[in-house]
Amino acid sequence: MQATLAEIVQALGGKLQGSPDTVLTCIMPLSLATPQALSFLSHARYAHELQTTQAGAVIVSPESAPLVHSSDVAGVAGVAGVAHLSRPKPALIVTPEPYLYYARLSQWWAARIRENDHARVAREAVAGSAAHPNPLIHPSSVVHPEARVAASARVGPLCVIERGAVVGEGSWLKSHVTVGERCEVGRDCILHAGVVIGADGFGFALDAHQHWVKIEQLAAVRIGNGVEIGANTCIDRGALIDTVIEDGVKLDNLIQIGHNVRIGAHSALAGCVGVAGSATIGQHCTVGGGAVILGHLSLADSVHISAASVVTRSIAVAGQYSGFFPLDENAHWEKNAAALKQLHRLRQRILTLERENASRKEPPA
């Protein structure tokens, strides 16, 4: 898939600064973009990346546009800029709401990829699965002819392996497993019933009417070797970069892994854990059942989260972490909860009393 800036601006609007003939082949974050990529700046905290990005073009607001040709972004990002005079400056698409523009761009881009393809894919997939030579693939499953299933892999009843997907040697997909387009499952993995690999991540942008505009999820999921995934667990595909599950990870039943998440090798997550988008979990970590890890956070290697905890900040040091209100009889719990709501006011009263007490103890001048 490729498009020129002229085609994009003609379809979606915006003010173009740069050559309309610039050819772009992908959409990527500023920090990872290549000269053939289109990127976007949606928040001031990433403005410093304008000085180092290799993107061929960037979607920016009118306020941020001058920063692309400036060597100092401190006024917006709060950090010192770095001049890269030898790097060609990217072309710009200037629009009041870059994130919303990106959302609409993702839809336009995905539609071009999928144009006139759905009916052909359905016909070829059914024909391909019926004629598939691997006797370990159940005849009721659907394997797209452009998917690759290793000769020793087992595929149970009613599975769907979509175009470009890969299932490695010795892996076993139980019943009703879906492996989405371009997603990869490594060697010696076990995916239990109902697992969905590569559903769309939860990405939307608000327009001026407070309506949600879908952001198409253009990346995939990559699962390493020796991974086991429990029943009805879902791993979403990335928006622009792949969701990654490294070697030896063990996931229990009913887990939700959001888009762009990375889980380090040999970590284990218990049932009903939720990991929000773009979180990073290190190697040899454990997460107890029902725990929640908020988006864009990082957990160091060998971090262990207690069951039902809510992780609201990044954790840089290995160890055991817990965060929940202790279980109690309901009447006691309600009294403690009421007291907890007054905690800030009580703290202020204590500080005031301490200051007053200190002033009374001061010797006369």
Low-confidence stretches: 72-85, 118-123
CATH class of the largest domain: Mainly Beta
**Structural class based on helices, strands and sheet pairing:** alpha/beta
Principal-axes shape call = flat
Kindly, what is the distance between the CA atoms of the first and last residues, rounded to a whole number of angstroms?
A: 81 Å
Q: Going by CATH, what is the homologous superfamily of the largest domain?
A: Hexapeptide repeat proteins
* Helix count from the secondary structure assignment: 6
Count of DSSP strands: 35
Tally of individual domains: 3
The share of residues in helices is: 10-25%
Q: Which strands sit side by side, in order, in the main sheet? A: 8-11-14-17-22-25-28-31-34
Average predicted confidence as pLDDT? 90
Describe the structure.
The chain is α/β, with parallel strands linked by helices and 365 residues long. It has 3 domains: 3-114, MurE/MurF, N-terminal domain (Udp-n-acetylmuramoylalanyl-d-glutamate--2,6- Diaminopimelate Ligase, Chain: A, domain 1); 118-321, UDP N-Acetylglucosamine Acyltransferase, domain 1 (3 Solenoid); 332-359, no CATH class. The protein starts with a strand and ends with a helix.
Key words describing this protein structure:
365 residues, alpha/beta, Udp-n-acetylmuramoylalanyl-d-glutamate--2,6- Diaminopimelate Ligase, Chain: A, domain 1, UDP N-Acetylglucosamine Acyltransferase, domain 1, 3 domains, 35 strands, flat
Give a short overview.
The chain has 365 residues and is of the alpha/beta class.
